[in-house]
Amino acid sequence: MQGIPAEITCRPVLFAGLLNRWGQKGPAEIPAKRRYTYRWCHWWAEHLGIPFRFPAAHPFNPLPHLRLALAAGPTREVVTRIFDAIWTTGRDAAEGFNELCHELKVSPEQLGTAQVKDALKKSTELAASRGVFGVPSFVVEGEVFWGADSIEFVKAFLADPKVLTNAEMRRVDALPVAAARK
User: Fold this and answer.
1) Which of 19, 56, 72, 177 would bridge 104 by S-S if both were Cys, CB 3.0 to 4.6 A apart?
2) Is 119:86 a contact under the CB 8 Å cutoff?
3) Could you tell me the domains of the chain?
């Protein structure tokens, strides 16, 4: 990631698993939020000059691609290639999957092994245990930064970790809940 002077380790997680863990809905499950989120993603990618196009249908079943990332080794290169296959073509996410497996030197049969399935489950559980509740998230020195729009916040933290320990940050960390819905 440009401007981030740190090594990034990609860890595929099952978003639905995080949603279940925290008892929340995903943005695509709330019609108004779905529309806004899709528009914002398109606008932001265009603003940054990043090739981006939603797949033909969304949400889609991400399990094969997540398992592929783990089986191939979730390096930046592998994750970028899988991202490009899904998020730049406008095609159905499953279209061309076998060719993608071949390109990444993984047989589709490998994706159904207990080892790969367990790796995804463990990765998701680990993320949740660290406080990850959404994707994308960055965990830096135990602090969770959520969302693509948190990149500047991550950069600020990397430049000066005290950004999270000033008086106002300590105060908001301890704010009591004054109202809760049932």
Assistant:
1) 72
2) no
3) 15-173 (3.40.30.10)
Packing angle between helix 63-72 and helix 114-129, nearest 10 degrees?
Answer: 100
In the chain, the amino acid numbered 109 is: E
Measured CA to CA, the distance from residue 150 to residue 136 in angstroms comes to 9
Q: Report how far residue 4's alpha carbon sits from residue 51's, in angstroms, rounded to the nearest whole number.
A: 21
Quick: pLDDT tens for 120-147: 999 999 999 999 999 999 999 999 999 9
Residue 89: closest CA among 55, 65, 114: 55
Angstrom distances, CA of residue 34 to CA of 17, 31, 119, 145, 159:
19, 5, 29, 21, 34
**DSSP-assigned letters across all residues of 51-77:** -----SSSS---HHHHHHHHHH---HH
Widest Cα–Cα separation across the chain: 54
> In this predicted model, what pLDDT tens digit does every residue of 6-25 receive, in sequence order?
688 999 999 999 999 999 99
For residues 26 and 15, what is the distance between their CA atoms, to the nearest angstrom?
Answer: 8
